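Read as amino acids, tokens; as here:

___
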Amino acid sequence: MGKLKTLTAGIIRENPVLVLVLGTCPTLAVSTSVKNAIGMGIAATFVLIGSNLVISLLKNVIPDKVRIPCYIVVIAGFVTVVQLLLNAFVPSLYAALGIFLPLIVVNCIILGRAEAFANKNGVLDSALDGIGMGLGFTLALCIMATIREIIGYGAFFEKELIPEDFRISILGLAPGGFFVYGCIIAALNKISHGRAVKRKSFDCESCPSFAACGGQKGECAK
């Protein structure tokens, strides 16, 4: 049950996007289409699993004073692998994700899990945590992308569903992204009767990556 709890924590109970409110920048940027959302979710999941595994294996070897630079090097290595694979096999998705693909290196979710979980737990648990958090991130992206693509662009997987006159085009833009994001968090909070959204404070000290950013206010990028 402990392993199952670790695996499923990131999907709903500690969803990195909808509960911990992390990774909002790529969430808003790539959730304009389901195709991009799935691509980003898979890429981030791969990096999460790989970096969690390596950091868990090396946690007793990495000196505490340089652990954050070491984490970033490990994460950057896996991000580079993802970039090369996408550029080689799915160039259209590579181009669509653009700058947000290399920015996975500084994604608060991945660095936060490295510091908060992989650095303190075994290899199997760290891998399960990476899978769960990756699935939760992908799920949140896909929910947002489905709403924005269908209502905002009148399409789903680039197939037209709604005539142009009936679309709410603002949902495809940045303000619409914030609106959909807020509505989903509010709905989750309503369904869970206030138990899902645990964070009561949104300052630096309440962020799971506070230790990873060196405790410098303003350095913890969402």
User: Anything to note?
Assistant: Residues 2-206 form one domain. The mean pLDDT is 87. The chain has one domain: 2-206. The longest strand covers residues 155-156.
